[in-house]
Amino acid sequence: MSQLLASQKFRSAVLQGGFVVAVIALIVSIILVGQRNIADQGIATGFGFLERTTGWPVNFSIIEVTGRSTYARVLWAGLLNTMLVGFITLFLATLLGLALALMRVSNNTLMKLTGTTYVEVFRNVPVILQVFFWYAILTHLPSPKQAYSLADVAFLSNRGLMLPIPSLSGADLIWLVGAIAVAGVAVWFTRGRLVASRRWSMAAGFIALVFILLLVAGREPGAGLISTPELKGLRFKGGLTLKPEFTALLIGLTLFGASYIGEIIRGGLLSVDRGKLEAGRALGFSTFQINRLIRIPLAFRAMLPALTNQYIWLMKGTTVGIAIGYPDYFAIVSTSINQSGQTLELLALLMGGFILINYSIGFAMNRLNERIKLKGRS
Amino acid sequence: MTDAAFPPVVKTGLADWFRKHFFATWYDTIFSLIFAALIFWSLQAFIGWAVLDAIWRVENKDLCTRDAGACWAVIESRGRLILFGLYPYEEQWRSTLACLAIIVTIALSCLPRFWSIRRLPTLWIAGFGTFVLLMRGGLAGLEVVTSEQWGGLSLTIFIFSGVFVIGMPLAVVFALARRSSLPVIAKSFGLLIDIVRSLPLLTILFAAAVIVPLLVPEWLQGNKLMRVVVAFAVFFAAYQAEIIRAGLQSTSQGQEEAAVALGMPYWSLVVDILLPQAFRNTLPSTINQAVITFKETSIVTIIGFFEVMASGNAAIGTGEWGNQYIEVYVFLALIYFVFVFGLSRYGAWLENRMRLGHA
Fold first, then answer.
1. B326 in contact with A at a CB cutoff of 8 Å?
2. Which of A73, A124, B274, B341 has fewest C-beta within 10 Å?
């Protein structure tokens, strides 16, 4: 017996067994208390509510949603809203971050100063404060009648930002999707025969050509090439309207995210060994060639893990949209909880949605990392 | 070897300095001019708005129009609301002292002489205790002010320091559990940490505020503020645990083996050998995490707490100061900036010092 107690194996087995029992007991007691409380409130459990209609409107969505839509559809709209604002933010913040990083590593003192000031100001103020700030600015703009206009095609008023968009009919869209598919197949089949950059630029050129042809030729009579917003009475008709909620969230997150991404890219650029750059110079490469062939590939490798984390963080950061009334996934789930009382089911869907988005980003970035990392060494 | 070049001449004159940093190439010249104009124009506009054309006193409130400069009168009028929230007017000196206690605690923990595994926790518990005692009262003739009346900057500081005091020990436990040699425990804590890290902070706080009351018996619930601080602390701990784990991994395996060979008990190994080095090695990341946590306290405004962000919104919520939103937001930004910039500069200084081999 004493031998048994002294044995390391036995002790660790008992310890782990006890831990598992404690965790199970905790989960069971939570479920029991939860079931009793939920039964007391007279709420049905299960996911049946997803088929019910919601009865409340959603003020921004890229798919058609009304008060008669089901919970499933409204939740899907919320998830799409989160992804919409999230991915546009990632794209714009990366571009701005790249510009900031280049400014900060340049030799030009004034550019350095501007970049540093930007980063310090936008990084050190909470993102929610920045979103509130832009929302207040946007909603205090003049009404559509006195809107600021840019060459009479884009307008900024307290109803949001109005932009011109190409007006494509359903048939046009099918043509465009077809062109993208053809270009994709062509890129796939010319693998190994042509240089990668050549293949991709040819594919992009082909898609652009089809797009222009569609705009110019494949058009029903009477339809304009491009739909521009026009003031009709008290509001704008036509074009694309970016509501203040969406625009404020996008600006706030982008400006904040760019300061972090800029620092990550700068760190990546600075991590490139000076000797390698000097070797490039010694071989007679131009500055452009050094940047393109040596510095950027090496820097990209170094900064990818940090960039992945930042992307995931920004995706999660979209939840502050609820503060200004942007119906992202979290806002929709929280309204649904209020309205339907299906707390646990909706909480599970909420966590599931974010884990899905974040794991997808993590997975995609890890695949990229696998592809570009140094081969032959682990 | 007749055409070997001479070594480049290093030019150090003022004109050369300017040439190198402003006019190195023709496009550098263009960029310099553009940015000089940009900097000049924005400085002029900002100073004009914030200082020269600004209206400072409430008496001159009528001068505040759209075309005038900043209307800082709003801060004079609503400053107390922003800083103290709904804390009773006569007791606001206590709120000030309480905030000072935490600021002193933060300042003291930046001094290397407090960096020991016993002094730091003692310092923080003392500082946090002083804060709660002053804010809550009920002792030494101080009137009781319940946490529902706390607000403004002091609530922000309470949440921050509460998260730090609860979250740090939790982070140590998480990190040690994840590195445990018992696979079941290591895997479960790994899963817990990964799940918490993949969720937005807001959803976790929301769950704590709204959903925990459904799942936990009444005697265990505490009030909403306590639940939110604890949930925030768990979130902080999940991130901090990964930092500490990295620090633990950076200590050499040999030290651990030497301690085991000497028959040191596990706790002594952890407290006397591993943790001091782990913390010291990851100090810059820890400070960075503290900075992020301080900024993220502003999130609790969404779930209905009256911290400095919410009280700022309340200050412009009335018709009287409704148009002074820019001034109030700039004021709030300045409050956050002072804390966050100060801490992050300190972190950068420390990192530099450590790279040179001090500390």
1. yes
2. B341
> Looking at residue A219, what is its pLDDT?
58
Tokens of B349: 């200084």
B25 occurs within a structural domain: no
pLDDT digits (tens, 9 = 90+) for A320-352: 999 998 998 999 998 888 888 788 888 889 888
Interface contact A26, partner B, CB < 8 A: no
**How many domains is chain B built from?**
1
Give the pLDDT confidence of B73-123 residue by residue, as tens digits: 888 888 888 888 888 888 888 888 888 888 888 888 888 787 777 888 888
Q: Which of chain A's residues have a Cβ under 8 Å away from the Cβ of B213?
A: 37
Number of continuous H segments (helices) and E segments (strands) in chain B: 16, 0
3-class secondary-structure state, position A26: helix
Q: Tens digit of pLDDT for each residue in A112-165? A: 899 999 999 999 999 999 999 999 988 888 877 777 777 777 788 888 888 777
C-alpha distances (whole Å) from B289 to each of A89, A178, B149 are: 23, 48, 29
> Looking at residue B233, which CATH number applies to its domain?
1.10.3720.10
Identify the closest residue of chain B to A360 by CA–CA distance.
B198
How far is the alpha carbon of A235 from chain B, nearest alpha carbon, in Å? 24
Asked if B182 reaches chain A (Cβ–Cβ under 8 Å), the answer is yes
Contact yes or no for B39 and A125 at CB 8 A: no
Q: Is residue B40 part of a domain?
A: no
Contacts B188 to A, Cβ<8 Å? 19, 23
The answer to whether residue B111 neighbours chain A at the CB level (below 8 Å) is no
Question: How is chain A split into domains, by residue range?
Answer: 2-42, 71-147+243-372
**B170 pLDDT tier (thresholds 50, 70, 90):** very high
A&B contacts, CB < 8 Å: 137
Burial class (CB in 10 A: 0-12, 13-18, 19+), B85: buried
Cα A89 to Cα A321: distance, rounded to the nearest angstrom: 13
Q: Tell whether B83 is covered by a domain.
A: yes
- Whole domain around residue B146: which residue ranges? 78-355
Q: Tell whether B164 is covered by a domain.
A: yes
Q: Is domain A71-147+243-372 classified as CATH 3.40.50.11030?
A: no
